[in-house]
Design a protein that fits this description.
By secondary structure, this protein is of the alpha+beta class. It is built from 10 helices and 15 strands. Strand 6 and strand 7 form a beta hairpin. Helix 1 runs parallel beside helix 5, helix 2 runs parallel beside helix 3 and helix 6 crosses helix 8. The protein is globular, with a radius of gyration of 19 Å.
């Protein structure tokens, strides 16, 4: 956990909420990119039952990586710049974070259910031999290119844009990048289906939302269905990129012949040139990119009020688990 005063005050409020119920809470600040993974693994080794991810999509993704395959539960406190995964769960952060927001979020988590959800595991050039888990997306093309240029964002940029306007940094970097981005010539194999062409973007999604939660990729994808959604957006010209962006923001992307949607358990993206890869909005090596689904490999605390159709399998009320601890 790190950030300005209002973030620290909100996290402190959440800490008091859980301590009032008898929980022992220890706050840890992240010091560098990837540090949240190490902190999550330390929490598992220490026998912690729950790890709260107080941050945005990058923090949530790193902590999910550290908790993958364990019994420790992930809970989300949305205080980051991009909170797409929190929004997916129905945790919509206010523009101006107040301490009462995280108290209300904590109450919803307390009243929620523990669900076993899928993770993807990505293999790419520059990653370790055993790959890297992700909770929301893996992608290559324009998003990997922009994220590779932007992340990790310099401290001065975070201070200038702040939490509320953090998306501006993506606009400042993203628009000029999109204007000169040449597209990616690739062959994509999804299980036994093969697609070849030139694409602006290729996204392997374990989530319905994308782009900080502004884009609804799918209305029926589930977090525990054992499948990945693969979205391919054809093209290489800036005007084609703009067209895709408009259709995505207006939920009309499935009406376009230049959009391809596939589902499967294994995905291989082979590109003609080395192309940057992103996982959960953070740089993660270069293509070729291979992704496989790992069913029910993460325990997630879904808050009360989360969309019920996000899950096909029943959850366990958190209060039931809490009483057994």
């Amino acid at each position: 956990m790190a950030g300005p005063y209002e973030v620290e005050a909100g996290v402190e409020t959440a800490r008091r909420f859980w301590e009032s119920r008898g929980w022992k809470i220890e706050l840890r600040d992240t010091q560098a990119p990837g540090h949240a993974v190490a902190l999550a693994r330390q929490a598992v080794s220490a026998g912690c039952q729950v790890v709260f991810a107080a941050g945005g999509d990058g923090t949530v993704g790193q902590i999910a990586q550290g908790l993958a395959g364990t019994e420790t539960v992930l809970a989300v406190l949305p205080i980051g710049t991009a909170n797409a995964f929190a929004k997916l769960l129905g945790l919509v952060p206010s523009a101006h974070l107040a301490a009462t927001d995280l108290e209300a979020t904590s109450q919803r988590l307390l009243d929620g259910k523990v669900q076993s959800i899928d993770l993807g595991r990505a293999h790419a050039v520059g990653l370790s031999d055993d790959g890297r888990p992700f909770i929301s997306w893996a992608g290559t093309g324009l998003d990997g290119y922009v994220i590779g240029q932007l992340e990790p964002r310099p401290k001065w940029m975070k201070q200038v844009t702040g939490r509320r306007f953090g998306w501006l940094s993506y606009v400042v970097i993203g628009v000029p990048s999109a204007m000169r981005f040449p597209g990616v010539t690739a062959q994509i194999k999804v299980d036994n289906q093969v697609i070849s062409g030139t694409f602006v973007l290729a996204v392997i999604a374990n989530s319905r939302l994308y782009g900080g939660g502004l884009v609804h990729l799918s209305e029926d994808a589930r977090l525990d269905d054992g499948r990945l959604d693969v979205w391919l957006f054809k093209g290489k010209m800036f005007r084609e990129t703009i067209g895709h962006a408009v259709r995505l923001l207006t939920a009309r992307h499935m009406m376009s012949e230049s959009t391809i949607h596939l589902r499967g358990r294994r995905v291989l993206i082979q590109t003609q040139e080395a192309t940057p890869v992103q996982l959960d909005g953070e740089p993660a090596g270069q293509a070729p990119l291979y992704v496989a689904i790992e069913p029910q490999s993460l325990r997630l605390l879904a808050p009360d009020g989360a969309p019920t159709d996000l899950f096909g399998l029943p959850g366990v009320p958190f209060t039931t688990i809490e009483r057994s601890l």
